[in-house]
Design brief:
Elements: E1 6-11, H1 17-28, E2 32-37, H2 43-46, E3 50-53, H3 66-85, H4 91-102, H5 104-112, H6 115-125, E4 130-135, H7 140-154, E5 157-162, E6 179-183, H8 190-202, E7 206-211, H9 213-219, E8 225-228, H10 237-256
Parallel strand pairs: 1-2, 2-3, 4-5, 4-6, 6-7, 7-8
Helix pairs in contact: 3-4, 3-10, 5-10, 6-10, 7-10
């Protein structure tokens, strides 16, 4: 490991055993330890040189949702601070990114106003056996998050893919019985993702398109369902697009009658290897 390096560890509980093992390895290799945790008295927090708290409050559900959103926010703040300290961005860009983050709570409130529409889409998802999620660039991890939450709490098989990889396997699975959830804010990458939507539509797939007004005007007519999100800086888009995919999983699980807070076979923190 590099001399003078920093190792960053992210954990809601701060007790995950494999993360702790990696932390011990990094410390033995002379790394400084920075952690992002939600539980300040946890083992990972105690073993860290510096702690960035997510301040999410108690996370009751096993399938962490607000913890994930706050982790993204803390990481965004850290990225801004490091970029400014290294001179990678100027004061104007720092202010622009900080303002975008400051507006996130208000934009989230707008999304929550669409909860009834998301719940109606969940009626369709609840009948599916397989669901695919697509995202491009920084939205690819959000596709993974949506698939993870759906499989964890509704027990529906779901997979997240980078949109550019759709032709390398997932396209073979597409038919009228497989919903495809696409996270695609408008921007430089949107046209490529819109092409993916067209390909899904041509094969009879049912697209659930999550985008802003500009994106929906471009490709919304190809979707069976649409969820409109506010237009925001691409820097904070992953935080906002997390909310509807988590809500889709929640409402689907409720409709299926599964235990949203305590899914079968899962533990709140993995404290054994």
């Amino acid at each position: 490991m590099p001399k003078g390096g920093v190792a960053l560890f992210i954990s809601q509980s701060g007790e995950t055993i494999d993360t702790l093992a990696a932390l011990s390895y990094a410390r033995a290799a002379g790394q400084s330890i920075l952690s992002i945790v939600n539980t300040p008295e946890s083992a990972i927090a105690r073993e860290s040189d510096a702690v960035l708290r997510t301040l999410a409050g108690p996370e009751i559900g096993v399938a962490s949702t607000k913890a994930f959103s706050t982790q993204l926010t803390v990481l965004a703040c850290l990225a801004i601070a490091i970029a400014r300290a290294r001179g990678a961005i100027d004061h104007a860009r720092e202010a622009q990114l900080s303002q975008a983050l400051t507006e996130v709570p208000a934009r989230v409130a707008e999304i929550l106003n669409h909860d009834a529409a998301i719940r109606s889409i969940a009626h369709d998802l609840a009948e599916a056996r397989d669901v695919l999620y697509l995202g491009r660039g920084s939205l690819y991890p959000i596709a993974l998050e949506g698939a993870l939450k759906l499989k964890e709490i509704s027990y529906i098989h779901a997979e997240g893919y980078a949109a550019g990889e759709m032709k390398h396997g997932p396209i073979a699975l597409i038919d009228e019985d497989v919903p495809i959830i696409v996270c695609a804010p408008s921007g430089p990458l949107f046209e490529k993702t819109a092409a993916n939507v067209q390909e899904v539509h041509a094969r009879g797939g049912r697209v659930i398109l999550i985008s802003d007004k500009a994106g929906l005007s471009r490709a919304g007519e190809l979707a069976s369902y649409t969820i409109e999100l506010p237009a925001v800086d691409a820097f904070v888009a992953p935080i906002l697009y997390t909310i509807p995919v988590q809500l889709l999983a929640y409402h689907t699980a409720v409709l299926k009658g599964t235990d949203v807070d305590q899914p079968r076979n899962l533990a709140k923190s993995v404290t054994v290897e």
